[in-house]
Amino acid sequence: MLELLARAVRRVRHLIRRRRSEREMDEELRFHLEMETADRIRAGVPAGEARRAALAEFGGVERVKEDGRDARGLRSIEDFGRDLRQTARTLRRTPVFTLTTLTTVTLGVCATTVVMSAVSAVLLRRLPIVAPEQVVVLRERWTGGNSGATHMGQPVYSYDHYLDWLDAAPAALRGIGGFIYIPLSIRVAGEARTVSSTVASSNYFSLLGVRPAAGRFFSEASERAAAGSHEVVISHGFWQREFGGDPAAIGRTVWVNSRPMALVGVAPPSFTGTILGLPSDLWIPAAVHRVPFRSAAAVEATAGRAPLAGVVARDQLEPGAAPYRINLTLFGRVRENVSLAQAREALTAIGRRLRSEGEWARIESVVLEPLGSIPSWARGGVAAFMGVLGGVAALVVLIVATNMAGLLLVRGLHRRREIAVRVSLGAGRWRVVRQLLTESVVLGTAGAGSGLLLSSWVLRIVSSWTPPMFAQADLDFTVDRSALAVAVFVALATAIGAGLLPALATTRVDVVTVLRGVDSDQTGRSGRLRRGSVIAQFALSLVLLLTAGLFLRAVHRAAAVNPGFDADSVLVAGISLRPHGYTVEAGRVFYARLMERLLAQPEVEAASLAQHLPLSGENNGESVGLPGEADSGGRRISVGKGIADVGYFETVRTPIVAGRGFLPTDGPGAPPVVVVNETLARRVWPGRSVLGQRIRIHGAEREIVGVVRDGRYRSLGDRPTPFAFIPFQQAYLPIMLAVVRHRSGFARAAAVLRHEVSALNPNIGVDRPRSLRSIVDVWILPQRVAAGFVSVFGLAGLALAAMGIYGVLAYLVGCRTREFGIRLALGARRGALAGLVMREGMQMVLIGTVVGTAAATLLTRPIARFLYGVDALDPLTFVVVPVVLSAIAALASYLPARRAAGVDPMISLRAE
Amino acid sequence: MTEVRTDLLQGTLDLLILRTLALGPRHGWSISKRIREMSRDVLRVHQGSLYPALYRLEDRGWITSEWGTSPEGRRARFYRLTAAGRRQLTDETEHWRLFSLAVNHVLQGG
Description:
The complex is a heterodimer of chains A (912) and B (110).
Chain A: H1 2-16, H2 18-42, H3 47-58, H4 61-71, H5 74-93, H6 95-124, E1 135-142, E2 150-151, E3 154-155, E4 157-158, H7 159-168, E5 173-187, E6 193-200, H8 204-208, E7 214-215, E8 231-234, H9 236-243, E9 253-256, E10 259-266, E11 282-285, H10 296-302, E12 327-334, H11 340-354, E13 363-370, H12 376-414, H13 416-424, H14 429-464, H15 481-507, H16 511-516, H17 525-560, E14 570-576, H18 584-599, E15 604-610, E16 622-625, E17 636-644, H19 648-652, E18 656-659, E19 673-677, H20 678-684, E20 694-697, E21 700-708, E22 723-727, E23 735-742, H21 746-760, E24 767-771, H22 772-778, H23 781-815, H24 817-825, H25 830-859, H26 875-901, H27 905-910
Parallel strand pairs in A: 6-11, 8-10, 17-22, 19-21
Antiparallel strand pairs in A: 1-12, 1-13, 2-3, 4-12, 5-6, 5-9, 5-12, 7-10, 8-11, 9-10, 14-23, 14-24, 15-23, 16-17, 18-21, 19-22, 20-21
Helix pairs in contact in A: 1-2, 2-3, 5-14, 6-12, 6-14, 6-15, 12-15, 12-17, 12-23, 14-15, 17-23, 17-25, 17-26, 18-21, 23-25, 23-26, 25-26
Chain B: H1 12-21, E1 26-27, H2 28-38, H3 47-60, E2 63-69, E3 75-81, H4 83-108
Antiparallel strand pairs in B: 1-3, 2-3
Helix pairs in contact in B: 1-2
């Protein structure tokens, strides 16, 4: 192996220093001759005679040099160089062919690279931590099949439970840590802002093996000690944005969730938390939640500054308010010498001990899961979607291959004469095949290069575009190394695969017939190949365009869905009081004052509070019994529910079809009320008025005071489900969404909201202000992307197929000009000739349509889940697309047909 | 004087060159001269075979070359045996012995 490598290096060195090698060879041979001559002279031969004799004995100098080059293995390399030069010449002579093929390969490589890079960026990226394969998430399986609560698809357990695990200190793990992804309010100066953050155990960073870019990470004295709990670590991005990367920022006091905390360190640029795509800007120790709040005044006094002016909420902060409970996802690092199975067994044994004494649920086993990059709830859908894109890319590559094969074939036929001449002059078939293959490899390589350029450009655009999915989704798409390898492989494999068949077909020439010029090859093997490639291209483009059509229909269908509210000019943002130490009473007052202040702003048309974003995918329904209904005895119904404040229906413009919405009089002391949607009303009291009826929901027997139009609550694809709205005043939550219908632009409205919240309490930030429209759009984003992507490649494929049909027919007409001339001379009608050519074309189209449609009925099945109820065999799509395509193909065959009809018998007969 | 064409047996020339170089570096002409002398003028290496063979051996990595000065004070390319070449020489020599022994057996037998 090493030997071969050394040999290759020597050969390449000779090749690079070819001129020098040649000179040295000359010099060496000259030296030899002179020595030989001198030897003869010494033996007494006269000088002239000696030299002639030496030369004669030597043989031809050039011959020796040629053999010498051969011995160094230079000949094959030089042949290759000659092939390359010849290829460059031929390609330059036929710019249309060259450009078409290059474009085709470029498209194929671009499609593959973009999809592969996206897949690897989204699905295959690994966390930038030390040995990520050792890091596992602990999921407890409890008696009764339950696993406890989850957050972002990962299991979470109480902080106290985490401390129990920490005390148990399983020997199989190097340590146990915990984290939870949560928005936190941070105030550096001026208004507070809410940023995506992680609440983490103090050993979080050291366990993951991350090193600080500046400062230090959490002090790891003990989770139980209060010391060191008021520390915050910021992301590298946050450090750059907020502090301009100033090292003096470290040591400063910032306010996080109304607590003064010391900024101790900066995470490295590569590390943005344990959920890729959802980067954290802050990390605070989980232990901070064990420390009771002090009054704001006391906090400010100890922080060494004057009490903040205008803090309305100050007197509402309750000294010693119970710190709120926090749940954590538990993770550990398995020791090197312990297998996952062993670790699992050991942890199960410890887990059973942890909850043994009369608790409500016991641990049956502990399951270890990889610390995932994509939240598991999203993984299935994302993977399926990527699969669809991957399938499309594969189809594109197939089109490229067939198209290239078709082009090379036609080209090969044009060059039959040239090839025949070369073969008759003694060129070996292998030599000619190699020359033809060199051509396709050159085209493939060049196409790969331009495809990579194009795809890095496309990926830059994709990365700069912020999807409306998550406020801070960070999708960093770059041309990935493995994607690059795959793309280059695809290009070369395509080029060689597509080049080999035509090369073999065109070199199998009958020299005599070709040179005599009577060979028109219409029925032979290459004719079939050529037709086959056109049919395949047409069928493949049809599959792509049918897919694109289905996605477009889905986008259209989804956009036409009435979500049950008017999404335009509505801003939604989270306002959480939970971490700020508000009592229930203080919280009510805060939210009420916020609403008052907002409604007083000229920019605000209407404002309210809601528990969930519409279409957020969240679901906390309950099973509702129906008392007072004799005939429904024991019947229960699953009802979705959400908490909303006064004016909610007016703000989002959900029509109230009967009764009323919530009023300020529906307070905590007033009779409990509920507003239901039409489906719930119809389901339970069909055909009757429901106003005044009572149901037991959300912990109270409530009177139905209003009925609202059905809407989509969890997703845009929802079927109408029973839903009930509970008034906020009767169901307080310290974490609500402000819903603001604005008269101004979105940015202005967001600024107003931020300002009003800050005026009430400067430590509270506004979480991710979004427009309601963007939330609706998220639901059709995958379809939009897919429709766009598939359409572009489908249309490109169609263009290529149309060109293929045109090319084949034009060639056919060219070959049969003489035959047509004779037919005309014998009295054939011109229309009949045109019909002949059209028939030939439409025959290919027909076969392509049948094959393509059949393939599409099989291939579109997996995308049904993305189609919002559009049938995967949607009749409209399956009629319109093939018809349009056939029309385009008919046009492509019309042009050559017209030329066939226009043949002048005199000219065509004389041409021979 | 009988001359033997050295290209009769493939690999023979390679063996002769390697053997010649085992005694120390030489340039092309002196290799051919040395082979003639050692074979008592029986074996004459055709120059047209010598240089391709040298390049082939170099390509295989059995010998290396560098420019030096000949005893006559001329610039000349000197070839030297590499470690791999020395191993090759041992193998080839052994092969040759076996081969010539076998041929002798055949010729003397029956």
